[in-house]
Design goal:
Elements (H helix, E strand, L loop, with lengths): L31 H16 L20 H19 L57 E9 L3 E8 L4 E8 L7 H15 L9 E7 L2 E7 L6 H5 L6 H20 L2 E2 L8 E3 L5 E3 L6 E2 L21 H4 L8 H17 L9 H10 L5 H4 L5 H10 L11 H12 L11 H11 L1 H48 L4 H40 L6 H21 L7 H17 L3 H21 L4 H22 L2 H20 L9 H21 L3 H15 L7 H8 L4 H4 L2 H13 L3 H22 L3 H20 L3 H21 L4 H20 L3 H21 L4 H13 L3 H14 L4 H17 L4 H20 L5 H6 L10 H14 L1
Antiparallel strand pairs: 1-2, 2-3, 3-5, 4-5, 6-9, 7-8
Length: about 950
C-alpha cells in the first residue's frame, strides 16, 4: 500500500523500531474456519432457545497459543453480532420489536475490587440484570389480549397486549422465571411496580395497573413505540444541542422521581424509550431504591447496575453513599454517549470497565469528537466526577445548567484545570505523586541552583580576569611576585573549570529530569498534556543554561549537550522545525570543535551522534532523502574510524561503537527502501549483519536458512526479520518474503506471551500483523488482509485507550483505520470502508494542524483525502510536499499514488480523470529517472490500480525492468 510510514519509529525515542507498514503470509491458520462455524451454530441454537449462549473460552481449549489472540477477536465479533440479533426479541425495554436493538447484558462476574467478596453471600458478587437464554411461552392474562412478546430482561418478560375493555395497546411486564421465580425476585418485581406507580410524569413510562395471574405478579405500562435511545444512537453521536435538550428533559424527569423519594440507579441509553415524535421516557426501574428505605433490599457490598454507566460508589458496592448523585452520574453518562457515540468507559470485560470507573478520568468528549462545545463538555464532565460532592447537587441543578447552555448564557460549572487533574491523578496513583514531588523539587532546585550558579559563574569569570591582570602586573614590576602570578593563573583555570562543571551539572540535572518524565508519565494514560508542560519547563531551563554559559572552548561541549537535549524534547513535543534548529546549532559547535582537534575521539563520537539525529529528523519529517543520506554518510565515516582505531577515552566503549556503526548501515538500508531502491537496501543490510553479527549473506534466501539455526532468534531479531520480509518482497522473491514474515510473526507472538502482554511487545505484534495484511492486499487477497488488520487494530486501539493523545499512538491508529478502509473497499463493503476513512481523516487532519512542517503527515493526509473523495484537496497536498523535495524519488512515488487515487475519486469527470492519471504517470516517470527501482511496488501497490492499465505507465515499468536486467 502507498499509505507508508516507512521512516517513522513505532515507539518514541527508539530509532531501531519496526516500521508501521507492509507485508506477510496470508495463509489462514489451521482450524480457525471450523471453530468459527461451530461457534456460529452454537449461537443459532441459543437464539432458538435450544441451548444457553456459548462461551468463547470453551472454543479456545483445543487451539495453540499462537492462534488464540486472532481467534478470540473473531469469536468476539461473532458474539456481538448474535447478541444484537437476539436483542430484537429479548430486551428489558418497552418498545416496538422492530426498533429495539439493545444487546443482551453479559452474565455476572466476581468483582475482585470488593474487599469482602470471597464467597456467595459475602456481598461481593455483581448483581446485574441478566437476560436468560430462553423465554417462556406466551402468557394468558385475564382482561388482556396478548399480541406478542416484546422482549425480556433479568427478571421480567414484556408482552405487547391490548386492554380488552379500554381497547388500548399497552405493555405488560411479568416475572420471567414464571413459577420458578425466587422470593427475592418476586419482591424486587413488586418493588419496581410500586416505585413507578407513584410517578406520574410525561417523561417517565407510566404504570396503569398491577395484579396477579396464576399467582404471578404483573403490571401494565404505557406502550412506547419509538424504540430506545441506544438504538437511535447506534454508536453515532447526536448534534450537541439535541443532546443537551434531551438530557435536560431527562434531568427534569429524574428530579421529579427524586422528589418522590425514588432513585433509578440504572440510567443508560437502553433504558430511555422514545415516542414516535422523539420525546424521551425513562423506563426499567428494576434497580430503583427509595431514599427512605431500600426497596430492593440490597446487601452491603453488592454491586448493581451496568458497568459502563455505573457511578464509582456503585462500582465499590458502597450502599452508604447511595443518593441522587448516582443518577446525576448516569445522566452524565447518557450525555457523554450522545456527544461521542460511546459510553464514558469501554473495555473488554466488566472487571476492566470497573477498574476504569474507579481509577481513571473519562476522555474529554472534544478529543473523541472535535466540535463539542466547551461549556457542554464541562457540564458533562462535572456529572462524571468521581466524588459525589463534586457533581451537581441535584438533577434539577443539572437541568438548570443545561438550560443556561441552550440559552447561550454562562454556565455554573467550571472545567477541571491541569493542576486539579494532576492532583487527582496523584491521589489515585501514589507512585506518580512521589514522582511529582521529586520532579518539583528537581525543578525548583535546578531553577534556584542555576540562577545562583550563573551569578557565581559571572563573578568567578570577572575575578579570574582580575587575577590574570594582577599576575601580569606583578611579573612586570617584580620577579619576586612570579610564584604568586602562577598561583593566580592556576586559580583562574580552576575557577573556569568550576564554572564549566556547574553548567554541566545544570544540563545533566535537566536531562535526568527529562528521562524520568519520559519513562514514568508516557506510560500513564491521559498524561500527554502534563508531560508536555513538564518537558516545556525543562526546555526553558536548558535554553537559559545555553544563554548564560561561558563561551569558551572548555564549555562548548556543555552547549552541544544542551542543544541536543533541546532537539530531542522538541521532537517529542511534535515541534519538527524547532528540533532541527537545535540539532543544527549542536552541529555547528561540534564541527568547530572537530576542526580544532581533528584527532579527538570524543568530539568525533559526538559529531556522529548529531549527524545521526539530523539524518533521522530530515528523513522522517522532511522526506528529503538526499540530505538525509549525506548526514548518514558523514555519520558512517566517523563511526568507521572509531571502530577501526583503538579507543583511548575510557567513556568510549568498543562494543557500543560497533553497534552504532551497524545501526547506521541499517538506517541507510531503510532510507534506500523508502527511495525505491531495494538492491541498495540489501547491500546495507548485509553490511549491518557483517558488523553486528560478524558475518554476511549473498541473498535474503540464504539468510533465511541461517535464521532457522539455534542462534536464529539472536542473529535475526523481530525487527530485522520484518525488514527482510519487506525487502524480499520488493526484490521479487515472494516465498522468501513469506518466510521472513512468518518468522517475525512467530517471534513477536512469543515475546507477547513471555512478557504477559507488555505494551511494547503488543505494539510490535500489531506492526507485524499489519505487514501480513499489507502483503495479502498487494497479492489480491483483501479478505485475508482484513483478518490480520482487524487483530492489529484491536492491539492499536487498546494502546489508544491508554494514551489517546500521544502523537505516535494517533499515527498508528490512523494507519490502522486506513488499512481496514482499503481492505473493506476492496471487498465491496463501502459503508465500512467510508467509516474507517472518516476516522483516519479526523486523526490525520489533527496531526497536520499540530505539526504542518512534517512532510510525512502531509503525505498521509493526502492519501486519505483522496480515499475520502476529496480529490482537489489531495492534489493540493501533492504540490506542498513536492515543493519541499522536488527531486526525491520516494516522495514522487507517493505523489503518483495520491494522483492515482484522485482519478478514481473524480467520478465521471473524464477531464479530471485524464489530468490526474497524467499527473500519476508523470510522477512515476520522474521517480524512475531519479533512481526509483522498485518494480514490485509499481506492479502491486493497490493505490496505483487506477493507472496500471495506462499504456504510458506500463511502458515506464517495462523500461525500468529492462534496465535492471
Amino acid at each position: 500500500m502507498s499509505n507508508k510510514q516507512d521512516n517513522h519509529p513505532t515507539c518514541d525515542g527508539d530509532a531501531q523500531a519496526l516500521r508501521l507498514d507492509r507485508t506477510l503470509d496470508s495463509t489462514p491458520m489451521v482450524g480457525v474456519t471450523e471453530i468459527r462455524q461451530r461457534f456460529e451454530e452454537a449461537w443459532k441454537d441459543a437464539l432458538a432457545g435450544l441451548a444457553p449462549p456459548p462461551q468463547i473460552e470453551a472454543f479456545l481449549r483445543d487451539t495453540s497459543v499462537e492462534e488464540q489472540p486472532l481467534l478470540t477477536s473473531i469469536l468476539q465479533d461473532i458474539e456481538r453480532q448474535y447478541r444484537q440479533r437476539g436483542s430484537t426479541h429479548r430486551s428489558d425495554t418497552i418498545g416496538d420489536t422492530a426498533k429495539v436493538h439493545r444487546p443482551v447484558d453479559p452474565p455476572p462476574v466476581v468483582d475482585p475490587l470488593a474487599t469482602a467478596a470471597s464467597a456467595p453471600g459475602a456481598g461481593g458478587e455483581l448483581d446485574f440484570d441478566v437476560a436468560l437464554p430462553t423465554t417462556p411461552p406466551l402468557a394468558q392474562i385475564a382482561g388482556y389480549e396478548v399480541l406478542g412478546r416484546i422482549g425480556h430482561g433479568g427478571m421480567g418478560v414484556v408482552y405487547k397486549v391490548r386492554h380488552v375493555k379500554l381497547d388500548r395497546i399497552e405493555a405488560l411486564k411479568m416475572v420471567l422465571a414464571g413459577a420458578h421465580a425466587a422470593p427475592e425476585q418476586l419482591a424486587r418485581f413488586r418493588a419496581e411496580a410500586q416505585a413507578v406507580a407513584q410517578l406520574q410524569h410525561p417523561n417517565i413510562v407510566q404504570v396503569y395497573e398491577n395484579g396477579e395471574s396464576d399467582g404471578l405478579p404483573y403490571f401494565s405500562l404505557e406502550y412506547v413505540g419509538g424504540g430506545s435511545l441506544a438504538h437511535k444512537l447506534g454508536g453515532q453521536p447526536l448534534p450537541p444541542r439535541e443532546a443537551a435538550h434531551l438530557t435536560q428533559t431527562l434531568s427534569e424527569a429524574i428530579e421529579y422521581a427524586h422528589k418522590h423519594a425514588v432513585l433509578h440507579r440504572d440510567l443508560k441509553p437502553a433504558n430511555i424509550l422514545l415516542t414516535e415524535d422523539g420525546a424521551p421516557k425513562v423506563t426499567d426501574f428494576g434497580l430503583a431504591k427509595r431514599l427512605e428505605g431500600d426497596v430492593t433490599q440490597t446487601r452491603s457490598g453488592t454491586i448493581q447496575g451496568t458497568p459502563s454507566y455505573m457511578a464509582p460508589e456503585q462500582a465499590r458496592g458502597d450502599t452508604k453513599a447511595t443518593g441522587p448523585a448516582i443518577d446525576v452520574y448516569g445522566l452524565g453518562a447518557i450525555l457523554y454517549e450522545c456527544l461521542t457515540g460511546r459510553p464514558p468507559f469501554v473495555a473488554a470485560t466488566h472487571l476492566e470497565i470497573l477498574k476504569l470507573v474507579l481509577g481513571q478520568e473519562p476522555v474529554p468528549p472534544c478529543r473523541l469528537r472535535p466540535g463539542v462545545p466547551r461549556d457542554l463538555e464541562t457540564i458533562c464532565l462535572k456529572c462524571l466526577q468521581k466524588a459525589p460532592a463534586q457533581r451537581y447537587l441535584s438533577a434539577a441543578a443539572l437541568a438548570r445548567d443545561l438550560g443556561h447552555f441552550l440559552a447561550g448564557e454562562p454556565i455554573e460549572a467550571r472545567p477541571v484545570g491541569p493542576t486539579e487533574r494532576f492532583w487527582r491523578l496523584c491521589r489515585r496513583n501514589p507512585g506518580i505523586a512521589t514522582l511529582a514531588g521529586v520532579i518539583f523539587v528537581l525543578l525548583l532546585g535546578v531553577a534556584i541552583t542555576s540562577s545562583a550558579l550563573l551569578v557565581r559563574i559571572s563573578r568567578e569569570k570577572d575575578h579570574t580576569e582580575r587575577e590574570r591582570k594582577a599576575a601580569e602586573e606583578a611579573r612586570d614590576t617584580a620577579r619576586e611576585n612570579e610564584e604568586a602570578a602562577r598561583a593566580a593563573e592556576k586559580l583562574a583555570a580552576t575557577n573556569a573549570q568550576v564554572a564549566t562543571e556547574q553548567s554541566r551539572l545544570a544540563v545533566d540535572t535537566l536531562a535526568s529530569l527529562v528521562t524520568r518524565v519520559q519513562t514514568q508519565l508516557r506510560a500513564e494514560p491521559g498524561n500527554h498534556k502534563l508531560r508536555q508542560q513538564i518537558l516545556g519547563d525543562a526546555l526553558t531551563g536548558l535554553e537559559r543554561v545555553v544563554g548564560k554559559a561561558v563561551d569558551d572552548p572548555q564549555s562548548r561541549w556543555v552547549r552541544t549537550a544542551a542543544y541536543q537535549h533541546m532537539g530531542d524534547i522538541a521532537l517529542d513535543l511534535g515541534r519538527t522545525e524547532e528540533a532541527l534548529t537545535h540539532y543544527r546549532e549542536c552541529q555547528k559547535i561540534t564541527e568547530l570543535m572537530e576542526a580544532a582537534h581533528p584527532d579527538g575521539q570524543v568530539t568525533r563520537w559526538n559529531l556522529a551522534v548529531i549527524y545521526d539525529k539530523l539524518g533521522d529528523a530530515t528523513h522522517r519529517f522532511h522526506g528529503d532523502g538526499a540530505v538525509a543520506r549525506d548526514y548518514y554518510l558523514k555519520c558512517l565515516d566517523r563511526r568507521k574510524r572509531l571502530v577501526e582505531e583503538p579507543l583511548t577515552a575510557p567513556e568510549l566503549k568498543p562494543a557500543v561503537a560497533k553497534a552504532n556503526l551497524a545501526e547506521t548501515h541499517s538506517k541507510l538500508g531503510d532510507l534506500a527502501m523508502s527511495q525505491g531502491d531495494p538492491a541498495t537496501a540489501w547491500d546495507q543490510y548485509r553490511k549491518y549483519l557483517d558488523v553486528q553479527r560478524g558475518r554476511t549473506f549473498p541473498d535474503p534466501r540464504q539468510a533465511l536458512a541461517a535464521a532457522g539455526t539455534a542462534e536464529g532468534t539472536k542473529l535475526f531479531p523481530t525487527g530485522l526479520a520484518n525488514k527482510l520480509g519487506e525487502l524480499s518482497f520488493h526484490l521479487g522473491d515472494v516465498e522468501t518474503s513469506r518466510g521472513w514474515y512468518a518468522r517475525a510473526l512467530r517471534q513477536s507472538r512469543e515475546a507477547v506471551k513471555r512478557s504477559k502482554g507488555a505494551a511494547r511487545d503488543r505494539l510490535i505484534l500489531s506492526i507485524v500483523l499489519g505487514a501480513v495484511g499489507d502483503q495479502a492486499l498487494q497479492l489480491g487477497d483483501p479478505a485475508a488482509a482484513r483478518v490480520h488488520y482487524a487483530e492489529a487494530h484491536e492491539l492499536v486501539a487498546q494502546r489508544a485507550t491508554a494514551d489517546p493523545t500521544g502523537i505516535s499512538t494517533r499515527r498508528a491508529l490512523s494507519l490502522s483505520h486506513y488499512r481496514l478502509g482499503a481492505a473493506c473497499r476492496a471487498l465491496g463493503e463501502t459503508a465500512a470502508a467510508d467509516k474507517h476513512f472518516r476516522e483516519c481523516l479526523t486523526i490525520r487532519e489533527g496531526l497536520v494542524k499540530e505539526d504542518p512542517a512534517n512532510v510525512y503527515t502531509q503525505i498521509e493526509l493526502a492519501l486519505v483525502l483522496a480515499r475520502s473523495g476529496r480529490h482537489a484537496d489531495a492534489i493540493d497536498r501533492i504540490a506542498l510536499f513536492r515543493k519541499r523535495a522536488p527531486n526525491d524519488p520516494g516522495l514522487l512515488f507517493h505523489a503518483a499514488c495520491t494522483a492515482s487515487l484522485c482519478s478514481t475519486a473524480a467520478g465521471s469527470d473524464q477531464g479530471l480523470i485524464d489530468r490526474y492519471r497524467g499527473e500519476a504517470v508523470a510522477s512515476t516517470v520522474r521517480a524512475i529517472e531519479l533512481g526509483y527501482r522498485d518494480a514490485m511496488a509499481l506492479e502491486h501497490d493497490p493505490d496505483l490500480d487506477a493507472v496500471r492499465g495506462d499504456p504510458r505507465f506500463r511502458e515506464a515499468v517495462r523500461k525500468l525492468k529492462a534496465t535492471d536486467r
